[in-house]
Every structure is written in C-alpha cells, then in structure tokens.
Design brief:
One of its GO terms (cellular component) is cytoplasm. With about 700 residues, the protein is mainly alpha-helical. Among the domains are: about 240 residues, Fumarase C, Chain B, domain 1; about 110 residues, Enzyme I, Chain A, domain 2. Helix content is about 55%, strand content about 5%. It has 24 helices and 7 strands. The strands form 3 sheets. A 3-stranded antiparallel sheet has the order 3-4-5. Strands 1-2 form a two-stranded parallel sheet. It is elongated.
C-alpha cells in the first residue's frame, strides 16, 4: 500500500537528519535546494555554500555580460533604463543611480529601536509594543533562497552579491527586516531590500548577530568590517534583481509547511491513541470502508491510524455495542474522512513550495543562451499563497478534530467512565483538565479565525499597476501562527491523553483486584444456597452490573461513589437473588445477608481503589495496555520529558496541608499544569517528538 504523505514527510525528515549529521554545508546550485536544506540553515545553523559547478557559475557571468551588451546597444530594459512599476514610462541612462533610487524607496518598513538593539533609544518606545521585525529564521531562509534563485543565471546579478550574502549568513548575520509591508506582488520588494542595505554597508540598516536568545546588533557597515567584506556598489539591474523575487514569502512557507507536515502525521497517531483512551473501536479504520471510497488521503489516514492502534488491548475491532452508543462518535469514526483531504492538500502545498525554492522569480528574465530578455511576472507569489491557504486550512481542520476528541475525553458524560476533568482524586476538590479544556477552546477559536483566506483582501497598489497581488508573505506569516496554535493544541491534547490513559488503566488494575474480592463476598453471603454453576452466573451478572454503576458514577468522590454504586446496584442484586436459578428466594434472613454484603462490599471497594491508586501513582502499568506506537508516545512524555501522572490537588506546587491531599506527603512535580504542557509543546516544536514518530518501527506504525 502506498503512503504518499507519510513517505514525503519521512523522506524530508530523513534528509534533514542527514544534512545535520554531515560535515559539509548546504550547497546551492539553483536547482537542488530542498525544504529540508532551508530548514537546516534557518533553524539549525547549518552553513551554506555556493556550488563550484563551472557551468552554473558561467551562466551567472553570461547573464551579466548579456545585459551589458543590451545596454551598450541602447536597448530599453525594464527597471534598468526605465522607471519601476507604474512609473515605467520614464527613461534614464543613469543605470547605477536608478538602482540606488529603487533601494531608497523600498527601505521604508517600520521598526522599533528595540528591534535594532538600540537600547539607548528605547526610552522613546511605548511600553507594551511587540517586536516589529521579521523572525530571524525567516530572514536567514530568505537570504539562502534568494541566492539560490540568483545563481540560476536569469537575473543579471554578479556573483559577488551572492557570495557576500552567503558569507554574512555563515557568520550568523542577517539584516533586521520589518515584519510588515510586503504584498508579495512584484516579489517581496521591501523585505529583500534590506539585504541590499546590508551589502551596501548602510549605517541605518542593522544586522542581527548570533542566536535569537542572546543577539547583538551592528550597523551594516560594521558587520561588513567584521567579516572582511567591502561595501557593494550596485550595477545595472542588481537592485531590481535582488528585491524582485518571492524569497521572503517562500522562506516563511518552507518553515510553515515543514512543521505542518509533522503535525499532520502526529494527528493520526493521536487519533489512534485517542481511540484507545475513549475505548473506541479499531474497526473505524477498517480498509474496506476507505476502499469503497477511493480517495488516496482517506485510504492513507485509515491505514496509518490502523497501524498506530495495532496491538492495543483498549481498542479492539469490536462489533456495535448492544447497550449505549452502537458506534463511536464522529471525532473518531470519521477521522480518516476528515484527515484524508488535508493530507492531499498538504502534499500539493509541499510541491508548490518546493518548486518555488528552485525558481527564478524576478523580472525581467535574461535568457543569455538565446539572446532574449523576457518581461513577465514570475514575482507574483500566488503559488505560495495557494500553498499557505491550504496549509492553514489543514491546520484548522486537524485542530478541530483534536479539539473534538479532547472535549469528548474530558467530559465524564461522554468518556465511558473516566472521572470529570480527568482528575485522579475526588472530583469535588480537583478539576485537573478543566482549565486545559478552556485553553483548547481559546486555541481553537484563534486557529479558526486564522484559517480565513487572505487572498480576498487584496488591495490595488502602486498606481494600480499592482492591481492584483498575492499577499503571500501575509498568508505565510499567518500560517506560521496557525502552526504555532496547532502545536499548542497538540501538546495540550497529548498531556490530556496521557492522563486519560493512566486513569483508564488504573481502572483496569482496580477491576483486576476488586473482582475476586467481590466474588468472595458474594460467595460468603449467598454461595451456600446455590450450585457452583448457578453461583457463577449469579456472580458474573452481579459484578457486571456493579461495574456499570461504578463507571456511571465517576463524578462522585470516592466515599460517595462506593456507597452509591452499592445502593444503585441493589435492585439488580435483589432481582438476582429471587431469580429461579439462584435458590436464594427461600433463604432465611436473605435481607440481612444483602445488607451485610452491601456494607462489606462498600468498604472493600473504597479500600481497594485507594490502595490500587496509591500503587499506581508510584508505578504506572499503562504502557502494557496500549498499542506499541502509543506506548512510545506515552513513555516519551512520562520518562524523557518527566511529565508525570497528575495526582490531583496533591500536586499543586504550593500545597502543604496533608489534610487536603488525603495525607499524601510525596512531593509532586513542583510545576503547574501549564509548565508541564509547555514541556510537551517545546518537544513538538523542536522536533524531538517528531523524531519519535518518524523512528517508530514498522510493527509500531
């Protein structure tokens, strides 16, 4: 069976691992740069290098020479001898000054003193303002992608500009670029102009040096001095060649699509784990269902979820229930149908972004081989807009699925016997996941808002010359925010899943201990009046009804739950006692036996549950019940991240009164729930969790 989305995601992940393990740099040659290569440079500090392929380098020289020939012949070339955009009706022979004029009218973005490291000027800055600079990883990716495009030899830009840009990049230097101001129509003009300002050594362009945690800032001319570079004087078309491209929106798109692919795979694993936590059925994902509706994404999602759930003792492929819901609710049962189209959209989005990485995206284009200059519109970044709209919508759709599953899991009226808010202690004083449930609603609401399409909001710009413009960078920025929110939803859901699985398996451990004890109490009080066969039927019926009542009363504190369970199961016990097979209807003092059994069983249930819970707090056996794939996720959270099973009120960091913690004196994690979820969130964002998923054995995935 083919798994196109998973294979794409795994291949890209493996490529990134190989790049990071390699001693060599990411080499750019204009046609083989991958999204993984962009991520390696932008997020992991990998060095970049220009190819030594003479044919590639010669094409760059040829494009510069051809342009000079055209100018010597007096030919008109847009942006070289003409004005720009709607002002292209002007003509000039001052080709170098024209490029400076372009630079001048593009270095116009809004930045704060703090964005540029001007601490002495921050007194003039209003408190509470967010940073107005484009994140450094996007800027680094932008520098790399623009260089990769320029060496394709269609732009008429000298190699020295490419080499100097890469030198600065490899010294962990990047210009401080305004966050807003690009409509990604004639390319990302304004953001890319700050690369030129850096190469020119402008005293008013600032360069970010080092990582984002401990950066320093230098004026561009100082950065050039540090790296031993000379300021660049722009020649014909070089200003236009540098800024007239889609590298900024493509850079943001690369970072967004890489993480989005990971979250899509993870959502399938979490659906499998959620099916276990909710005691759902693996039959939801039977291949016959998807084969009758042969959408490739749905077929793949069903197969992936089935593989992840394989080996679970909590979610067998059972038939419809005879009591209660006959089938799982939509958030589980229709997960393949919901996720499948998103996988197809993400695969297409990936192809669009990957193609753009190795594209020439400026205007005019130089075809030195055939002696032609082409005036066109490759700078129109709608392919990135299209990719980002699909990616952002996919994040919203998968986020909604995770939210729906999570809501069902926390609600004791829907989660098949787990306590409300997934508290491990008394529900009257413990609301473990209630706040997380509210957080999930907040994340989901914002994610849904971000999913709205950007493209309908196009405004005519630049003398109505740019009457249609892609807004690709805006779309990519919002997609990165959507990825951030989806990561928060994912991390929160993982925390809740692990808590739910522990509670589910705690119940199973309790049942294993309690059933023989209750069976002996039944034998003690009622066994003498019936045959062994009749007693077996009697005890089985009584225990089954008792457990059903126990699960339905999970909203009560333990003491009240035990009493209510025995009280509400009394009618069935009496019915069993007077049934024809029991032989108890004529037993003297039957009511006294029932009363004594009820009292003893109430005490036994409370004592056994308390003891089992205390043992389980110290040693969880959850991994032995769930699928191998879910166990990998669970063990990563519990053992590597050291995020423990939450015991309830006892784990509040400042609580010191043993009377409020059932006398429990054991120290908890010393962290609030938000800090524990944050540990998982960081593992989602930094790739550690993705490594676990990608490394699952075939038998575990």
């Amino acid at each position: 069976m083919s798994f196109p989305h998973f294979e794409l995601t795994h291949t890209e992940w493996a490529d990134l691992q190989n790049i990071l393990k390699s001693d060599g740099p990411v080499v750019i040659d204009g046609h083989s740069l991958t999204i993984a290569g962009v991520v390696a440079v932008a997020l992991h500090g990998k060095k970049a290098a220009l190819t030594d392929d003479a044919a590639v380098l010669d094409r760059v020289h040829e494009s510069v020479q051809f342009l000079e020939t055209q100018l010597d012949k007096g030919h008109t070339v847009y942006g070289v001898t003409t004005g720009f955009g709607g002002s292209a009706d002007t003509r000039t022979d001052k080709v170098k000054s024209l490029q400076v004029a372009l630079q001048q009218h593009q270095n116009v973005g809004v930045l704060l003193p703090s964005d540029k490291g001007l601490l002495s000027d921050t007194a003039t800055q209003v408190n509470g303002l967010r940073g107005h600079a484009l994140p450094v990883p996007i800027v680094k990716a932008m520098m790399l992608i623009r260089c990769n495009s320029l060496i394709r030899g269609h732009s008429g830009v000298r190699l020295v500009l490419v080499k100097n840009t890469l030198t600065l990049l490899n010294h962990d230097m990047s210009p401080v670029v305004p966050l807003r101001g690009s409509i990604s129509a004639s390319g990302d003009l304004m953001p890319l102009s700050y690369i030129i300002g850096m190469l020119e050594g402008s005293p008013d362009i600032f360069v970010h040096v080092g990582d984002e945690q401990n950066p320093t800032f230098l004026p561009a001319y100082k950065a050039l001095e540090v790296t031993g570079l000379q300021p660049i004087s722009l020649q014909a078309k070089e200003g236009l060649g540098m800024v007239n491209g889609t590298a900024t929106s493509c850079a943001a798109g690369c970072l967004a699509i890489y993480e989005a692919q990971q979250l899509a795979v993870l959502s399938q694993l979490l659906t499998a784990t959620g099916t276990e936590a909710l005691l759902g059925t693996a039959h939801n994902y039977h291949p016959f269902i998807s084969e009758t509706r042969p959408h490739t994404g749905q077929i793949e999602a069903a197969a992936n979820i089935s593989a992840y759930i394989s080996g679970s003792s909590l979610a067998p492929g059972k038939h419809p229930e005879t009591i209660g819901l006959a089938q799982d609710r939509y958030s589980l049962r229709t997960a393949p149908q919901w996720i499948g189209p998103q996988l197809e959209d993400l695969a297409l989005a990936h192809r669009q972004v990957q193609a753009e990485v190795n594209s020439t995206t400026d205007n005019p284009l130089i075809d030195a081989k055939n002696g032609l200059v082409h005036h066109g519109g490759n700078f129109q970044a709608v392919c990135i807009t299209s990719a980002m709209e699909k990616t952002r919508s996919s994040m919203q759709m998968m986020g909604k699925l995770m939210f729906a599953q999570c809501t069902e899991l926390i609600n004791s009226q829907m989660n098949r016997g787990l306590p409300p808010n997934l508290c491990a202690d008394d529900p009257s004083l413990s609301y473990t996941c209630k706040g997380l449930d509210i957080n999930m609603a907040a994340y989901m609401s914002e994610l849904a808002y971000l999913a709205h399409s950007i493209s309908p909001h196009v405004q005519s710009a630049e003398m109505h010359n740019q009457a249609v413009n892609s807004l690709a960078l805006i779309s990519a920025r919002y997609t990165l925010e959507a990825v951030e929110l989806m990561s928060m939803i994912t991390a929160t859901y993982i925390y809740i899943l692990c808590q739910a699985l522990d509670l589910r398996c705690l119940h199973l451990e309790f049942v294993q201990v309690a059933q023989p004890v209750i069976n002996e109490l039944l034998r003690e009080h009622f066994g003498s009046a019936m045959t062994e066969e009749s007693f077996g039927e009697f005890s089985h019926r009584t225990w089954k009804f008792l457990v059903e009542k126990w699960l339905s009363l999970s909203h009560l504190d333990l003491e009240h739950r035990c009493k209510a369970t025995m009280k509400e199961s009394l009618s069935d016990l009496i019915s069993a006692c007077i049934s024809d097979y029991s032989g108890l209807r004529n037993k003297p003092e039957i009511l006294g036996h029932i009363e004594r059994y009820q009292q003893a069983a109430t005490e036994a249930l409370g004592s056994i549950y308390n003891t089992t819970r205390e043992v389980f707090f110290r040693h969880q056996t959850t991994a032995s019940y769930i699928s191998p794939a879910s166990a990998q996720l669970y063990n990563f959270v519990r053992k590597e991240l050291k995020v423990p099973f939450h015991r309830g009120l006892a784990d509040h960091p400042t609580l010191r009164d043993p009377s409020l913690t059932n006398g429990d004196k054991d120290a908890g994690p010393g962290k609030h729930l938000g800090s524990l979820v944050s540990e998982i969130y960081l593992a989602v964002r930094n790739g550690r969790l993705h490594d676990i998923v990608m490394n699952l054995d075939k038998g575990e995935a």
